[in-house]
Amino acid sequence: MKLALLGYGKMGKTIERLASEKGHEIVFTKSGSSEEGLLTDADVAIEFSTPEAAVSNIKLCFQQGIPVVSGTTGWLDRYDDIIKLCKARNAAFIYASNFSVGVNLFFDLNEYLAKLMAPWKEYIPEIEEIHHTQKKDAPSGTAITIAEGILKHSEELKNWKLNEQDDRSIVIKAIREGDVKGTHRVDYVSTIDTISIKHEAHTRDGFALGAILAAEWLVNKKGVYSMKDVLGLK
Ligand SMILES: NC(=O)c1ccc[n+]([C@@H]2O[C@H](COP(=O)([O-])OP(=O)(O)OC[C@H]3O[C@@H](n4cnc5c(N)ncnc54)[C@H](O)[C@@H]3O)[C@@H](O)[C@H]2O)c1
Ligand SMILES: O=C(O)C1=N[C@H](C(=O)O)CCC1
Hints:
Bound molecules: nicotinamide-adenine-dinucleotide, ligand LLHOTIJI
CATH architecture of the largest domain: 3-Layer(aba) Sandwich
Strand content: 25-35%
Distance between the termini: 26 Å
Shape: elongated
Helix content: 25-40%
Number of domains: 2
Radius of gyration: 18 Å
Mean pLDDT: 96
Strand order of the largest sheet: 2-1-3-4-5-11
């Protein structure tokens, strides 16, 4: 598979290493807004850049007819526009807030637990995420997906809030420390006890391998997909 890498920071470089080990070829890399260029040698693009750059990078792929896998977080206020554009252009697109297989299993576990806990109103759900100090967005995209999974099964809770709790919202506590790769915990807290589930990434390899898997899956497809399609979790 011939790959274009849009964004060549911590994730871009991890993807380059692991994709090369799998026998894929990197034919294009982009690490700034001034670089445009032709992606047409690539079978698929993998986009891990910045919240400000993601939308124009994805559009660049749609314009050049290259399927695109995007893992950049912090731009989702534009997600619906991108989906419309993808359909209008008959392009191919996968976004995931987290590409690791472990986190995608954790998303399902989170929804299972949310359904189980829904009748037990004395337990209040809370989310905590911890990441490295260079991270630009808060809360993490993964924490937002976790919150959405809980909201789907709750009658009382209507939204999430960063570092703030009230009767109708789930608090997401965002902590930035050292070089933490990504830790997410969901607690159901009552006065009597706490029930917790946690995912802790030890390296970035899981995110990168999941993105490569998604790219391999997306080649020669059209349409909008998710990691559930890639992993057969639907
Ligand atoms: N979905 C997932 O599984 C997952 C996993 C890890 C990180 N992320 C997200 O991926 C993004 C990147 O993470 P990172 O740790 O590699 O960050 P990073 O800061 O190490 O790398 C980002 C790179 O993007 C480059 N860049 C800036 N503008 C650009 C542009 N216009 N076009 C192309 N590249 C540009 C920067 O030069 C930088 O090298 C973040 O949004 C992060 O939250 C998602
Ligand atoms: O390092 C990051 O930045 C990460 N971002 C994603 C998020 O916001 O959820 C995934 C975990 C790592």
